[in-house]
Amino acid sequence: MSKPLPLLTSPPPERRDAARNREALMEAAVCLVELHGVRGVTMDALAARAGVGKGTVFRRFGSREGLMGALLNHSETEWQAAVMGGPPPLGPGAPPLERLLAFGESRMVLNIKHAELIEAAGNPGARSFAALSFTTMHVRYLLGQLGVEGDLAYLATALVAPLEMIVLREQVDREQIPMDRITAGWTDLVRRVAGG
Amino acid sequence: MSKPLPLLTSPPPERRDAARNREALMEAAVCLVELHGVRGVTMDALAARAGVGKGTVFRRFGSREGLMGALLNHSETEWQAAVMGGPPPLGPGAPPLERLLAFGESRMVLNIKHAELIEAAGNPGARSFAALSFTTMHVRYLLGQLGVEGDLAYLATALVAPLEMIVLREQVDREQIPMDRITAGWTDLVRRVAGG
């Protein structure tokens, strides 16, 4: 009897194992960040938590910097999924102004977290254009839903700009402005831009 | 007869010479940027233009990177002087909305020029907190003059954020948006923020 051809939809067993291993490692890493912060995530701690050898962790991520880059991608992807299809008000289903305000608050928190990961990834000042395009397009879409007229591409860029890590970190780290004042400020800005 | 004490208001002759030399070198450097762009400014070209030896240029600036840093400081200082005491509408004397719009346009042009100098100074991603404080304080002052109510510190930060080099360079270099559309967008943003 001839061997059946592998189906295109199911990856070969080795690949599926690898994917499961990668997923398990990412979950363990996310867990470590939650428990001990970015500084607490070492290659040793990750190997111990995931129950694999240190060699496996190094083969997967190359270095701690590589692991930080992977955590960053993972976090960005999860957040974008929540915006596109997660529960309202961040996800679809809430009125556009509520979605926009939920987006701003959520993105601020994410950017502050990401600033630490980017630094740990050895790439200070880095800025993902893919992530930036996504946020700007989303704000532009919501401004359209709100019936705002004008150069929506520019207004979206202007609303996203004060959420940039470098702006936030200066407000939070240098000027020690509390997050709720920053959130209130952005909410007021959105109402001025959208409300006219 | 005893030697007269030097007056505190007049520096000793050596110092005055040094200051004149520095000023002449800066003027020559500014001139070279105007004529040939940042790339055209080399230590050799500067020595030739200023009519001094190459050693003098190196003693003064240390390296081409040092020269770029000095050009950056010089340009920022000149611009701040123009905002504080130059002719209207950038300087005092024009109505606050006109001054604010003149500020935005002028700062955009300056930031694009500075982006090139910062890169040439070997410090990509650098951002002067002193310059940023000045621009934010100035916008805050003008918003107050306009009678805008609310968290003026936040609104000023939000209006300055889209003028940041990283935002502008993406609009200009990557998206190829013409400067007049960017200026029009910022003008509209200011009217929405101030006009409510």
Explain this structure to me?
Two copies of one chain form a homodimer. By secondary structure, chain A is an all-alpha fold. Chain A has helices spanning 13-36, 43-50, 54-61, 64-85, 96-120, 129-145, 152-160, 165-174, 179-195. The radius of gyration of chain A is 20 Å and the shape is elongated. The termini of chain A are far apart. Chains A and B meet through helix 7, helix 8 and helix 9 of A and helix 7, helix 8 and helix 9 of B.
Please tally the helical runs of chain A, counting DSSP H or I stretches of 4 or more residues. 9
Query: Helical content of chain A, roughly?
Result: over 70%
Q: How many domains is the backbone of chain A divided into? A: 2
Indicate the multimeric state: homodimer
What's the rounded overall pLDDT mean of chain A?
88
The unreliable regions of chain A are: 4-8
Approximate strand percentage of chain A: under 5%
What order do the helices and strands of chain A follow? HHHHHHHHH
Tell me, what's the shape of chain A? elongated
Instruction: Supply Rg of chain A.
Output: 20 Å
Cα distance spanning the termini of chain A:
74 Å
Largest interface: A-B, 30 and 30 residues
Give the helix/strand class of chain A. mainly alpha
**Strands of chain A, total number:** 0
Please summarize the sheet with the most strands of chain A.
Answer: none
GO molecular function, one term (chains A, B): DNA-binding transcription factor activity
Keywords (chains A, B): DNA-binding
Protein name (chains A, B): TetR/AcrR family transcriptional regulator
Pfam families (chains A, B): TetR_N (PF00440)
